[in-house]
Structure formats: structure tokens, C-alpha cells
Amino acid sequence: MVAASAPLLVAVDDDPGLLADVERELRNRYSADYRVCCLRSPDEARRRFQDVAADGGEVALVLAGEELAGRPGADFLAGVPSLFPHAQRALLLPWAHVGDPPTGDTVFEAIARGRIDQWVMRPAPPPDEQFHQALSSFLLAWAETRRRAPHTIDVVGETWSGRAYELRETLERCAMPHRFCLAGSEEGRAILTDAGLDRRLPLLRMPDGRVMEDPTDMDIARSAGTTIDPSGDEYDLVIVGCGPAGLSAGVYGASEGLRTVVIDSGSIGGQATASSSIRNYLGFPRGLSGADLARRAYQQAWVFGARFAFMQQVTNLAREDGGVVLSLDTGGVVVARAVVLATGASYRRLGVESLEELRGAGVYYGAAAAEAPLVAGEEVFIVGGANSAGQAALHLAHYAKRVTLVVRAATLAAGMSHYLVHQVEQTPNIEVRTGTEVVDGGGDGRLEHLVLRDRTTGGQETVDAFALFLMIGARPHTEWLPPTVERDDAGFVLTGADLGAEALRAFGRPPVPLETSVPGVLAAGDVRHGSVKRVASAVGEGSIAIQFVHRLLAV
User: Fold this and answer.
1) What is the pLDDT of residues 71-95, one digit of tens each?
2) Dist CA 254 CA 267 (whole Å)
3) On the CB side of 192, how many CA atoms lie within 13 Å of its CA?
4) Cα 375 to chain centroid, rounded
5) What is the spatial distance between Cα 152 and Cα 290, in angstroms, rounded to a whole number?
6) What's this model's pTM, rounded to 2 decimal places?
7) What region holds the FAD/NAD(P)-binding domain (predicted)?
8) Cβ distance 173 to 157 under 8 Å?
9) For 224-289, where are the alpha helices, taking DSSP H only?
10) Domains of the chain as residue ranges with CATH
11) In this predicted structure, what is the pLDDT of residue 147?
């Protein structure tokens, strides 16, 4: 029998027959781990919510009919976060309404206004695995917000910053679910007691129970079985970088029979892991996180035969008679018939010394999804005006009292997709300050305040701030490349027709569209000059690069 403290799954529908269908599916599949509560009245559901909250219980998922008591079901779902801010909320739609334009507009508007999180088709006669696939994704999203995701790593540290923060950054880059607690907290003491109190901090407790004391990044990669030593080997294809473009190239290269290795100084996902919800990615109508996309792509490439060398830095490349020779920071050498550069780009530094000193203690680069639950009820600021900043604002708005988006440009539309601008503007606890920049800030060991400057008037204002997330433009990871690889003034790699006249003459043939100034070396994704800074574009370029690799290898 399920425990009385188990999280609640709630369905509300005033049609008894339709409610019975939903209740049947919930009880048949989830009653072993969740309490199931199905009610016919929104008022009855609200009373039940108050009782559960008073008892300290949790609600994981709320499903509601499209219309309840003569009002939109979204109106009822909009009130759920006041008691259960992490609960997933989904509108139940009949099959006949999926594809209906007015219904689509209504769902889009409800999501944009933060009134619902998801939608799902009503269950068909069992077994309706499509219905349960959707519900499983909702429950996983809830589990991740509550740090209950499967295979979660526990990080225990003495402080928020320092090495403990660096480890959390590493795990974030690896797209590994993790949670952090201070050694002096109740949870931290329990983990240390279980592991043995004389352990060296910071400490990682792996999902299988193993304990790692102050591990290096390479130790983490080895513990997860996700790295090899590629030096001394020859490959058909070496991919440098494991973001969306590199993962896509890895999937297509390996699946098409090329002996493929992916090398990255970090781990999977690149900057995409900072995206908490990518809603405009083809084939995922309910959205997915950047970390989830990275994990799926990594597993896909691995099964096709791609090999991965994580926490290893490529320091140089040169074209020689035997192919392209790549040097590693370990002293090893890898030889490839073709290379795809997919090193991506990272967020630029703010350059404010007082805030750089608080990195990891309230100041974060990227969306830092792992930090989101820690800002509950607090004042949060995001600097940036691109899609990733908008996605971060929407994600953090589920937790924070208020999220302020600080944008240097005069309008959000200058750098953000229309659908995201609409969602940001419709979210009541997101404030947008355009024409503004952060010029100072500080706190006693942790961020407490920021200084904002109006770029038009020059006027400054000091505001309370619990957290600052910086997402302020891309800096390509190309500093390691030799001068033979042509780049633009910002450091992005030139390819194809953008190459200089001298490089084009040296080829003796027309370069393929993604080829750099070094024959046989291609570039894909954010690192490439002229690329569209979108996940889908990076994935597309990674796949296209492989077609050009085949063409080059056939010469």
C-alpha cells in the first residue's frame, strides 16, 4: 500500500465518465508510488490542496478538464502554484480538439501566461501508452525540480562557492542530475554519517552508493564510464566539442559507418544544457530541456558506435600527409581523416570584479538549472536578451518571488524569438528592464545587492538581489586553434564562401560549404561564423557536416 506521505496525483473533471477514464489509468499505473485523487469540483480540489499543504504533503501532477464548472480548466490550474509551486499542471484535451486552431491558440496563450505547464490528450481505451508516455515526462520534470530524479548525485560541501561550486558546474556540463547540500545541514550530516564522518570535502555520493572525496573532473568522467583515451589511434572522423552540433555529427558519423570519436574538455551538451525548456524544437510539442536532449543524443551516438573522450582538451591541429593530426593536453596525439570543429561558444564574462568574486555564491553564468530550487521566494536577476535568457527567466519564475530580466538593447525583440517574448511579457512575476546594465554589486560572502545603470540617462539604482544569472553573448572556443584556421574579428571560424581569397586559392578546389581554411577540417554550430544561434540549427549543421565529410573522404 502506498505511504500516506506519498506525493499526490490529482485529476479534476466535472464529467463523471471522462473522469472515470482518467482515474482508471492513474490507479492502474501509478498507485504503487503515488496517491491518486480524482475529484469532480474545482472547489473540492482547492479544499483538498489546502489540507495537503497544511499536512506538509506534496502534489506532483494536476490534470484538469478543458472546461470545469463552466470556466476554462486553465483558470483552475493557474491557482495551483500558490500552494504547490513545483506541481506539473496539464490540460486534458479530447482527440478531436488536437489540431483545432482555436484550441491551439488557447493552449499557447495559457502556457505563455504561465497558467498551465503542459497539455495531454485524454486517455483512449487501455493500454494507451501514448498517454502514459506524456505523464511519465511530466512526473520526471516534477522529480527533477524536487531533486528526486533517477540516478541523482549528492554533492556535499562546506560552502556554496569554491570547489563545491566547481563540481556542480562540472556535473551540470555533464548533464548529470545532482543536488547540493551544506555539510552542516540536516541532509548533509545524514549523508556524511552514512559515508563515514571523516571524509574529505567536498564529497560526491554516486547513485550506486560509491563515495568520491574531492574528485577531479576526470575522476567524475571515469566514474560514469564516459571517457576513453583516444591518443595513438586513427579515426575516420574526430569531432571536437560535444554540444548539439558535435552530438549530431557523432550520431550521423557513427551511424553511417565512420570510425568516430568525440573529444571535449568538459562533457555532453555544451551551452545547451543551460536551457531549461526548449519548446520550439521539432518533434517535441511539449518541449524538452537542453540536458535531456544532450543525454538522449549521447546515448544514441554511443549505441551507434561513437566513442567519447571527456575532460580532455585538444590543444592544436595540423594538416599532414597522413591526415589531420590533433594534439591533446595529455600529451597524446590523434590522427583523423576528417575533423568537425563543434566547440561552440560560452557566455561572456560581465567584467565586474566585485561580482566575479561571488561566482557560485549568488552569481552564476548560464541558467544554472541546479540552482533554481534554491531561489524560491527570492529576488532574481538575469542579464541577457537572447532565447536562452528568456527560457531561463520562465524557468526561474516558477521558483522566485520575482525575476528581473536586464537587457542592454532597447527591446526584447532585438534578440529573442517572438514566442518567448510573448511568454516573458505575459508572466506576471517577470519584470523586463531594457536599456539597462549591471555595473556593480556585492554582499557579505554572498550576493545581496546589485547596481543597475540606465544606459540612456546614466542614472544608477541599487536593488536587493539574491541571485544573478549571466547570459550575455557568445564567445567562441577557438583560442586554441592555429593561425591556419581563419576566423573573423570576433573569433568565429570562417567556412566555405566566407574564406579569404588566399585560402581559396590554396585549396586547388572549391571548399565544401562548412569546410574551414584547413582542408578536411569542417566547422558546425555556434563556433562557425554566420551560424544561427539555435539548438535546431546546430543539430542540422552537425548532420550536414557528415554529408560533406563523406564527399571529402571519397576524393
Assistant:
1) 999 999 999 998 998 899 999 999 9
2) 18
3) 20
4) 17
5) 17
6) 0.72
7) 235-542
8) no
9) 244-255
10) 8-145 (3.40.50.2300), 153-217 (3.40.30.10), 234-346+475-553 (3.50.50.60), 353-472 (3.50.50.60)
11) 58
